[in-house]
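COMPLEX REQUEST
Ligand: adenosine-5-diphosphoribose
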Amino acid sequence: MARKKIALVGAGQIGGTLALVLAQKQLGDVVLIDIVEGVPQGKALDIMEGRLPISTSTVLAGSNNFDDIKGSDVVIVTAGVPRKPGMTRDDLLTVNYDIVKVVGEAIKKTAPNAFVIVVTNPLDAMVYAMQKVTGLPPERVVGMAGVLDSSRLACFVAMELGVAADDVQATVLGGHGPTMVSLYNFVSVGGIPLPQLMSKEKFNELSVRTAEAGTEIVNLLKTGSAYYSPAVCSVRMAEAYLLDKKSVLTCAALLKGQYGFNDLYCGVPVVIGAGGVEKIIEISMTDEEKAAFAKSAGAVKELIDWVDAKMKG
Ligand code: APR
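STATUS: Structure written out below.
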């Protein structure tokens, strides 16, 4: 079987972490691509030199040439500017749109058969722009946010209950911003529905912390945004695709009528396998949750309208 190839466009904090975790998992050979000379090459070589103690034969390379995306099975895009304290994800819109456009044109030219995972913020608008620029089928252009938001909520629930983090399943839908929607009835702790273990009031506190979790990290780091957890969540999506796992994950997927929205990327539960986003799962929500989801989708729509106007003119 031919070795798989994974291109990481953006060799910054998330890109570097992605390269290390992908090498540990031996999911495919890795090429790191960035506009800064030396950084992708240096990070690739650094990890190459550490392969013996982690028992991996993954080959890594660094490049400043977008042509090296060529033939990739998976492309993970983190190219762009991260937040600093005081900034919202939406503040990154204009600068990161220009970057995503350039990267999208390169993917269209060199790797039109790839599964593309966008991580650059503001996430929902950037993955929408990526799909429009590349013209790739929407099931092969997906955004990483819901896996992270859900993992953050699961973490806070586990901390509150004093149980193992990997025993908690959680679902957070909507846009990747302060309007995201944490679902009380969709958290389970070792299979036990959360309402049997935690009050709605306590859950609401954790839900607020989840919506602001990215900002909490930005305020602690002061120089950038979260990178370890975004990287491992992106790997989970790449793995689901490369191993045809049929994993049920919350991702930003293009809605075509589901949940009452059309031509809008938003976080919803999907099945990821060799076909990319093989299915969008429509779950039933309470009226309160439906209203919150509609509000969140509305916030995403405003940014998407900006992208549409920019692309037209
Ligand atoms: N092509 C390739 N790489 C680029 C380009 C471009 N046109 N423009 C910028 N980059 C690179 C930068 O040189 C930098 O190395 O993207 C990298 C981004 O890395 P960091 O600044 O460390 O940011 P990171 O923490 O990795 O976050 C990247 O993901 O979560 C989002 O909000 C976050 O939008 C940000 C992105």
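REMARKS: The first strand starts at residue 5 and ends at 9. The two ends are 45 Å apart (CA to CA).
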